Amino acid sequence: MGGLRRILVGLAGAIALVALPPAAIANVPAGFVGMNANGPLFSGAAQPRRELDRMVASGVESIRVVFNWSAAQPYPNWNTVPLDQIGSFQPYPVPTSFTETDRMVELAARLHLTVLPVVMYAPYWDQLPHPPITIGIPRSPAPYADYLRLLVLRYGPHGSFWRQHRGLPKVPIRMWQIWNEPNILAFWPAPLVPNYVNLLRAAHAAIKQADPGAKVVLAGMPDYVWTELADLYRAGARGLFDVVAVHPYTKLPRGVITILKLVRRVMDNAGDRRKPIILTELNWPSALHRTPFGADYETTPAGQARKLAAVLPLLARNRRRVGLMGFYYYTWITDGIPGGDPFQFAGLLDFSHGRIVEKPAYFAFRRVALAIEGCSRKAGVATRCVRAP
Q: How confident is the chain (389 residues) per 10-residue block, as mean pLDDT?
């Protein structure tokens, strides 16, 4: 039955993809196709190397991962570290563990995947009081900036990680995303202006000091992102970021382009015509009738595949017009639980009953991502494309 189900799912994905006319395919530059890597991928439910191999074979050239500040610096000083944990931390003034981030960077480097970290989650010792539904945000931006500086010195072009792993392909991290969705309560209970601007200012200074050529990526924002972006410009944030990030959750694929045009208009009016936009989250969860939320972007598994197959060529064709440097689909694998959050159904793969199942959207993504890259297949590593005839 498992083999039959796999065949049927594959056929459903193929049927969802109507033949694209030649004009619908526009080749994209290297690094354009990305994937969020989180959830079951690193929780022990999946085999990360196997799944990253599958990502590469599906056209993925970059992954967006969370660098969890609270996990890396759980203690404010050495006096608070339990004796049996002292060996787990690097000897910085704030005890720091690179164990999890080293693991992710090493896995990506072996396949020549670039990494976009989104650095977030304040440790208890630098948290503002917050509602139960909200993650911890920094009381003071200075400790967050200090952690960012250590990350750049670890994984940037002259980073200690590369000196310690000389056998790895060197794929330094040159873009750093400052938090996630600070325009919604779940991720940022304080006002966007001035609180997030203060964090952005400290982060920008720390990153540029450690690697002047690095790019600071604004936190990705959903909903009416163009109005939030205008607020940031009015608050004087223009010089504090190099890339604008957008999370265009909307019902129809063409709505993604509409949102990008609105964001570009705000950027152009602010004098930022040359700055690029990046989509750091993009999806249609296959959660229709499976959760109580009823968001208008929820759909069925077949609808998820159709919308994904439609939006990628749109992004490729419009990328120059809106200044789009790339996108990251959200996300590779999820473990959908009926009645839960819609985003638990966002994955291209589904982890269910101890098995990983490919959804129709997986086949849609692989086919169209390779097509816009001009590849018939990817061989071994993200940078190796077998050109379509």
A: 38 43 68 95 87 97 98 98 97 97 98 98 96 93 98 98 97 98 95 96 98 98 97 98 98 97 98 98 94 87 98 98 98 86 94 90 98 93 88
- Alpha-carbon span 245 to 253, nearest angstrom: 18
| Nearest of 206, 228, 210, 209 to residue 219 by alpha carbon | 228
| pTM tops 0.90 | yes
Question: Which class does domain 2-384 fall in?
Answer: alpha beta
Domain boundaries, the chain: 2-384
Q: How many C-beta neighbours within 10 Å does residue 27 have?
A: 11
Spell out the alpha helix ranges (H) of the chain: 2-16, 48-57, 69-72, 99-110, 141-155, 160-164, 197-210, 225-234, 253-269, 301-322, 360-372
Closest listed residue to residue 12, CA positions, set 286, 302, 365:
302
The C-alpha atoms of residue 116 and residue 105 are separated, in whole angstroms, by 10
Question: How many Å apart are CA 313 and CA 74, to the nearest integer?
Answer: 43
